[in-house]
TrEMBL record:
The gene is LOC115638179. One of its GO terms (molecular function) is olfactory receptor activity. The chain crosses the membrane at residues 23-47, 59-78, 98-120, 140-164, 205-225, 237-259, 271-290. Keywords: Cell membrane, Disulfide bond, G-protein coupled receptor, Membrane, Olfaction, Receptor, Sensory transduction, Transducer, Transmembrane, Transmembrane helix. It is a multi-pass membrane protein. GO terms for cellular component: plasma membrane. It comes from the Eukaryota. Residues 41-288 form the G-protein coupled receptors family 1 profile domain. This is Olfactory receptor. Belongs to the G-protein coupled receptor 1 family. PROSITE patterns: G_PROTEIN_RECEP_F1_1, G_PROTEIN_RECEP_F1_2. Its main location: membrane. It is found in: Cell membrane; Membrane.
């Protein structure tokens, strides 16, 4: 059955991470254990921030939203990847593939813009501490989060609308465990030079510019803190900035590798894709939490009360 855009492809074949049965079983157990531990931990972070009134600062509001975005992001590809480890014929429908494309870039784009909002929050906290509470009110924080979701949606829908108009007449094999624009558009039965350039700009250059902007802003904040009074509060602010920089590198590193180059297959593509879609997103809130004394202290008190 052909789609309205003239394509004869109704499904795509996913070659997966490995064709060896023993390796597939090992990867299934490894990812299942990781997913079963880290996913509840991220949910605990959200519940902790929501339940403790002392964690009502905008910084923790953004962290809870970051954890929620990462949980949603890691619900797009890992469940099917785990199921495909037990399937001899790994396929995904045309509609399922387009849905993966949309949600991967929707949630990923929203997270990028949320990190920009978190950087603005740190700028106000460090450069305008006396006006911080009045500037970063509940309305502004909600507006920044809403803008992040809207930005991610716009970024994603522009790509998906263009891709669904492409004709796919075969082959239909994707050398990966999920659908992404870097490989899907290569299967189109038409000239994709202009479209590839647009995708490179929309996903690659925009990601790179946001990455550089975040590094410059946090670098400037660290310099300002070094020149200021090295008090306990300033030391805490510097630690928070460093934590944000770590998350920025973890978030943007794989994305820059995947999208800031010609859309061709390279040996490390699958490894980077695993870290980009499965491992790193769930680790972002964990890294932030382990470096945050307030959240650790609250969790410790809860554990003591439970015991």
């Amino acid at each position: 059955m052909e789609h309205e855009n003239g394509t004869g492809v109704t499904e795509f074949v996913l070659l997966g991470l490995s064709q060896t049965r023993e390796i597939q079983l090992f990867l299934f157990i490894l990812f299942l254990v990781f997913y079963s531990i880290i996913l509840p931990a991220n949910i605990l972070i959200i519940l902790t921030i929501q339940c403790d009134p002392h964690l009502g600062f905008p910084m923790y509001f953004f962290l809870a939203n970051l954890a929620f975005l990462d949980i949603c992001y890691c619900s797009v590809t890992p469940p099917k990847m785990l199921a495909d480890f037990f399937s001899h014929h790994k396929t995904i429908s045309y509609g399922g593939c387009m849905a993966q494309l949309f949600f991967i870039h929707f949630l990923g784009g929203a997270e990028i813009f949320l990190l920009m909002g978190m950087a603005f929050d740190r700028y106000v906290a460090i450069c305008h501490p006396l006006r911080y509470a009045s500037i970063m009110g509940r309305e502004i924080c909600c507006a920044l989060v809403g803008a992040a979701w809207a930005g991610g949606f716009t970024h994603s829908i522009l790509q998906v609308v263009l891709i669904i108009q492409l004709p796919f007449c075969g082959p239909n094999e994707l050398d990966n465990f999920f659908c992404d624009i870097t490989q899907v558009i290569k299967l189109a039965c038409t000239d994709i030079y202009v479209l590839e350039f647009f995708m490179f700009f929309n996903s690659g250059l925009v990601t790179l510019m946001c990455f550089l902007l975040l590094l410059i802003s946090y670098g400037a904040l660290l310099v300002r803190l070094q020149m200021g009074n090295p008090s306990k509060g300033m030391s805490k602010a510097a630690s928070t900035c460093i934590t944000h920089i770590i998350i920025v590198f973890i978030m943007f590193g794989p994305a820059i590798y995947i999208y800031c180059r010609p859309f061709q297959n390279f040996p490390l593509d699958k490894v980077v894709a695993v870290f980009h879609t499965v491992v790193f997103p769930l680790m972002n809130p964990m890294i932030y939490t382990l470096r945050n004394k307030e959240i650790i202290s609250y969790l410790g008190k809860k554990c003591e009360l439970t015991v």
